[in-house]
Amino acid sequence: MANDEIKQIWKVPEPTLRRLPWYLAFVKLLKGKGEAYVSSTQIAKEINVDSSQVAKDLSFVNITGKTRVGYEINTLVAVLEDFLGFTIQHKAFLFGVGSLGAALLQDSGLSQYGLDIIAGFDTRRELAGTSIKGIPVFHISEFPACQKELNATIGVITVPVDQAQSVTDHIISEGIKALWNFTPFRIRVPRHVVVQNTSMYAHLAVMFNRLNQLNRRNENYSCGNELCKPQ
Amino acid sequence: MANDEIKQIWKVPEPTLRRLPWYLAFVKLLKGKGEAYVSSTQIAKEINVDSSQVAKDLSFVNITGKTRVGYEINTLVAVLEDFLGFTIQHKAFLFGVGSLGAALLQDSGLSQYGLDIIAGFDTRRELAGTSIKGIPVFHISEFPACQKELNATIGVITVPVDQAQSVTDHIISEGIKALWNFTPFRIRVPRHVVVQNTSMYAHLAVMFNRLNQLNRRNENYSCGNELCKPQ
């Protein structure tokens, strides 16, 4: 986790960065339909966010809307994709070619959003020399040499929980600058390293809990249908 | 998105639900090391959260710590796994067997956390009749019949953005109660349906932005090393 001092230097707030891809997806849809302009009010209505929030979010991006017509769609798509880093390929190594790691190597969609995973590493000798969708898998001992040659900036961490911290320390020592952590372990990093946690299991936990609560709530109504409940 | 009225009925706050899996991962590590007890202070220190917050989070779970020694680890692991819904298999269908969808079908790890994807659906006829890791893929037209027979509660959405809303409407009409949305599209659902958004691309955007800012910041110091900067 970046510490507080680091956090203060971020120019763009994280909630803004998380909303911008929603806007991009919607605006790309409009582009596909042949539309020319979009207003922040339109985006706001679609995404279910305040229109002043949309305007504020877009103020971080280098684009100006025209009065009455709004933003020019082609420009907005290009500028957003560029701003979000989706137009540059960021070289990444993946650590831990288990079930989730192998799945991520399969997902060619990531490279369309700027993440170019160029190799996977694992401690299991039997995986060394194999490849997944053309991406080579090496034994972890080959990582320092690969890093010297290829100079990846991002490490995707999909190792078992008990190896998460040691792998983190190892890859940072070889010059990896940002970590995409898929493990449910809270890794610790020096302040000059970026961490993005994506805990799929935490998302599952939230979904299961909401589902259970709705189920229990519905059981309190005779017909078992949420729509039958007194409004 | 659940609307405000629905949100008020959630007994457990989302941030709590997102932190609990971090605690679980850490406590499981301690269990593996043969430890017997853990205090909220220990968890707090490891996860980098206030210890009062840890105690508050754990107050939602049915477990009581003992003064001085803390929580009994075996019980805490069992109670947390149960509370988070990881011990029950939730039947799910996956919609959109593209790159990401196929990758998720490959990830057997999900079933260890309670998500049992029992079939995939796609509009492409050539995929019908195939299977991935033993999970059958059907044409989308077969979904209503499959749903009547198997009664899945969760829909995993990995379709292209322009199909996200129509697929959402279709699967809700057949009785799916919760949606795990991997598309960058903000789907709209009736208030009795749960939505969990997992936008991998939004996470990439945050990581790329932080990385770029650190790079730019470092360029302002002659040695290019964050550690050389004046403190």
Features:
two-stranded antiparallel ribbon; homodimer; 3 domains; 16% strand; disordered N terminus; disordered C terminus; Arc Repressor Mutant, subunit A; 9 strands; Rossmann fold; alpha/beta; 231 residues
Present the secondary structure layout:
2 copies of one chain form a homodimer.
Chain A: H1 4-9, H2 14-32, E1 37-38, H3 40-47, H4 51-59, E2 71-72, H5 73-83, E3 90-95, H6 99-106, H7 109-112, E4 115-122, E5 131-132, E6 135-139, H8 143-150, E7 154-157, H9 164-173, E8 178-181, E9 194-197, H10 200-219
Parallel strand pairs in A: 3-4, 3-7, 4-6, 7-8, 8-9
Antiparallel strand pairs in A: 1-2, 5-6
**Remind me, CATH topology of the largest domain in chain A?**
Rossmann fold
Beta-strand percent range of chain A: 15-25%
Biggest interchain interface, per-side counts: A-B, 78 and 78 residues
Radius of gyration of chain A: 22 Å
Could you say which structural class the secondary elements and strand pairing of chain A correspond to?
A: alpha/beta
CATH class of the largest domain in chain A: Alpha Beta
**What is the tally of helical segments of chain A?**
10
Inertia-based shape of chain A: globular
Query: What's the CATH architecture of the largest domain in chain A?
Result: 3-Layer(aba) Sandwich
Order of helical and strand elements of chain A? HHEHHEHEHHEEEHEHEEH
The named CATH superfamily of the largest domain in chain A = NAD(P)-binding Rossmann-like Domain
Strand order of the largest sheet of chain A: 5-6-4-3-7-8-9
